[in-house]
Amino acid sequence: MRILLSQLLRFTAALLLIAGFLPAQQTAPRWIPLADAKVEIDGLPWFHENQGEFWRLPVRSRDTFPKAVWNLSLDPTGGRIRFRTNSSTVALRLEWPHAPDMRNMHFFGQSGVDLYIGNTYWNTATPDKEAAPGKVYEHVFFRDQPRAMRDVTIYLSLYSPVKVLGIGLDTDAAIDAPAAFALSRPVVFYGTSITQGGCASRPGMSYQAILGRRLNFDQVNLGFSGNGKGEASLARAVADIDAAAYILDFAQNNATVESLAEVYDPFIAILRERRPDTPILAITPIYAANESTGSRRNEEMRALIRKVVSRRIAAGDTHLQLVEGPDLLGPSRVDGLVDGTHPNDLGFEWMAEGLAERLHKLLGL
């Protein structure tokens, strides 16, 4: 009787599996290297030159950058991994050098790695408190989904180095190159911690990432937290990229208005020497909560940027435009700030909304 009952149970389970009511037995994924010809790395212009490292600046010029800037360039904010696949499961093997440790950004915001299908968010991989070199995490973003070709975009972390050691797919899954962007060249953003992504809840929520999805363009993030000061070496690195447009979102990291005056016009001059016809959008500082208590520093910096941009336009630069930061995030939108200075997801959404139409026209989309 026991033998008959056991056989009956196995037969019933087999029928249920055939009918699709029981999950199939999990099989080990096929691990695809980033070097696969169908995998595209975007937002990291020097990726191949840097021998496959997720560094945001060229290692050949490392000694010309301030040390703090180079260290921040190891955070791959803006970097994306893109491909198409019909795999029912997508996973990543990841390694973080240290656990998240920021005060004004949680684990997902600092170190998370997002997966989007098309323009739809699905899941985030994060390290734990034990993250260290050599500790490998295998994160399954989804499994047992219906077989269909999907556009996959993986957004790399905003404020932490990370290694992607492999992409896990079904053993028999197809993989293909991703769909092309609307523009053949990227839009390059240079600036401060706000540009780098502080304080988005996860990497897909920086304002550049939102704009990239909305307008379907590649974007390069050269924001350096606390160190977006406009040095000549950074201007030359920005100009090294053949871009569809340059977005200058720096000011507040300069200690004084005088120090900003020393670098702002020369920064544009370096871009113009190399790229005379590339559109440049200069953004004045967004609103900060301390302005409500009488701080004039941001407004003085806005006035300086207006003066520089107006003078250059009057001198014949027809490819230079100004955007007022408070028009993107102003005093009526302080709920869009985390700590009085940095946008949260709502603030970044507002910034992206305010820039979308301007960029749509500027880029001829």
Structure description:
The protein is an alpha/beta fold. The chain has two domains: 30-43 and 78-176, Sandwich (Jelly Rolls), CATH 2.60.120; 187-362, Rossmann fold, CATH 3.40.50. The chain is built from ten helices and 15 strands. The chain has helices spanning 2-19, 67-73, 107-111, 193-196, 207-215, 232-239, 257-274, 297-314, 325-328, 345-362; strands spanning 30-32, 40-42, 80-85, 90-95, 113-117, 120-125, 137-142, 150-155, 163-169, 175-176, 187-191, 219-223, 245-249, 280-283, 320-323. Strands 2, 3, 5, 6, 8 and 10 form a six-stranded antiparallel β-sheet that branches. It has a five-stranded parallel β-sheet with strand order 12-11-13-14-15, sandwiched between helices. A four-stranded antiparallel β-sheet has the order 1-9-4-7, with no helix packed on it. Helix 7 (257-274) links the parallel strand 13 and strand 14 (280-283). The termini are far apart. The model is unreliable at 1-9 and 11-25 (pLDDT under 50).
What's the β-strand tally? Answer: 15
CATH class of the largest domain: Alpha Beta
Overall spatial form? globular
- The CATH topology of the largest domain turns out to be Rossmann fold
Structural class based on helices, strands and sheet pairing? alpha/beta
Radius of gyration, in Å, reads 23 Å
Separate helix tally: 10
Low-confidence stretches: 1-9, 11-25
In this structure, how is the largest beta sheet organized?
Answer: 6 strands, antiparallel
Oligomer: single chain
Q: How many domains comprise the coordinates?
A: 2
Secondary structure: helix percent: 25-40%
Q: Approximately how much beta-strand content do the residues carry? A: 15-25%
One letter per element, helices H and strands E, the order comes to HEEHEEHEEEEEEEHHEHEHEHEHH
